[in-house]
Amino acid sequence: MYSVIVSVVVVAILQLTEARIGTGSCAKPPTQQNFNLSRYLGQWYGQVEYSAIFNVGVSCSRARYSLKPNGHLRIFNQGYYRLIDQPVSVEGEGYVISESNPATLSVTFFNFLPAAPYLIVETDYDNYSVVYSCKTIGFLKSETAWVLTRSTTGLSEDTLHGVLRRLESYGIESNHFSRITQTDCPL
Ligand SMILES: *[C@@H]1O[C@H](CO)[C@@H](O)[C@H](O)[C@H]1NC(C)=O
Ligand SMILES: CC(=O)N[C@H]1CO[C@H](CO)[C@@H](O)[C@@H]1O
User: CA 72 to CA 95: how far, in whole Å?
Assistant: First the structure.
């Protein structure tokens, strides 16, 4: 029971710290055309992330996507918390809300936490993916975004800049991104 409470608290903190809290409305980026969930499955590594107000020193962020028997997406996120010198992992579930919009998922990590939209803005499946998640709570918004890559090396600087410029044009500010360390990962 104690460990359950600890992980719930850690996840709640993760959710708060991994998002930027701001005011105004969420960006409305386009999503990947003809999104194919099967091609999206497998291992991804975070290259950059919309950083939180608090820098809690997460490195080695990675996500593994697989299919559940019910057709929903199983999301397994891992990272390493330098601050507490501990690996942290959290499992969530996502599903496509409407088949007419296959790259828009609803994702939840614990039953008591509200589900958040999860938009796959663009992906080529083999190299990179851009994810945007934003939820408004009254006049506040909680917003986060990642560039995920299939390799720990990540995209080249030029390609990454191209991606961040496109995000900027959708109102997702590139100066809010910070780099995720993917070396010396004790996971
Ligand atoms: C999605 O990708 C899988 C695996 O590459 C492929 O077998 C399937 O035909 C694709 N589905 C569509 C609708 O393109
Ligand atoms: C632009 C780019 O890096 N493309 C690579 C994407 O991944 C495939 C499969 O690993 C490579 O063949 C491409 O060169």
Answer: 5
